[in-house]
Amino acid sequence: MAYDNSGRADAARRTRARVVEAAREQLLARGWAGTTIRSVAADAGVSRETVYKTFGGKAGLLKAVYDRTLAGDDAPVVMAERPLFASLRRASTAAEAARAYADVAAHIAEEVGPLLRVALSSRGADPQLREFAEQIDAERLAGVRQVVRVWGEHGWLRPGRTPEATADVLWTIVAPTVHELLHTRGWSRRRYRDWVEEALGALVLVRGGP
User: Fold this and answer.
1) 158: left (phi over 0), alpha (psi -120 to 50) or beta
2) At what angle do helices 127-153 and 94-120 cross, to 10 degrees?
């Protein structure tokens, strides 16, 4: 009879979820410096060794919190295939693509914004945070390159710029630092969403195109 380890796997997922949630709450309440492996482990009801074994340390824990916040759950589904991106996948014109992408960008910015404000505000003083920032920037660039590739296949990209340069422009428009600057100016989610859509129409996608 084959050994069924599903119960152990479920327990491990629940433990991981508790640790990630405890870390998220502490990061938002105490900041990066005030959050420790010891305090996260205590709040989650596990040992420090469990946290280190699962996440590899504080930086790995932060990345897990970011990924969970960004995706909304721990399901092994890539972002592009999640329901959040359904309207973007269904877009049949450049205008629809701009609206859908602006909706996605505003949702993501609102979800991860508070966490990134905590993490990135201290990155200049901590090599782990600099590495985290570089990692999420690279992941965002990979994501926008995929979007630009699809838009290019549809013929929706504005002429006169290479796909790589277009990806750089899109990557900058939806950068967390840009959203943070606008947030400090008191911009609402709706205003930011509308600005992203306008920027896409002006800099990335054709107007009134196919």
Assistant:
1) beta
2) 180
Q: Which amino acid is at 2?
A: A
**Token code pair at residue 49:** 């060794």
Euclidean distance between CA atoms 104 and 87, whole angstroms: 9
CATH of domain 6-57: 1.10.10.60
Rounded Cα distance, 160 and 206, in Å: 11
Number of C-alpha atoms within 13 angstroms, CB side, residue 133? 18
pLDDT tens profile 58-101: 999 999 999 999 887 766 666 767 777 788 889 999 999 999 99
| Residues 126-139: tens digit of each pLDDT | 888 888 889 999 99
Query: Tell me, what DSSP letter sits at residue 91?
Result: -
Report d(CA 210, CA 205) in Å as an integer. 10
Contact (CB, 8 A) for 26 and 34: yes
How many CB atoms are closer than 10 A to CB 50? 16
Domain residue ranges of the chain, discontinuous segments joined by +? 6-57, 79-203
pTM score of the predicted model? 0.85
Q: List, in sequence order, every residue forming a beta bridge with 205; answer none if it has no partner.
A: 157
Residue ranges in the chain whose pLDDT is less than 50: 1, 3, 209-210
Determine the pLDDT at residue 62: 93
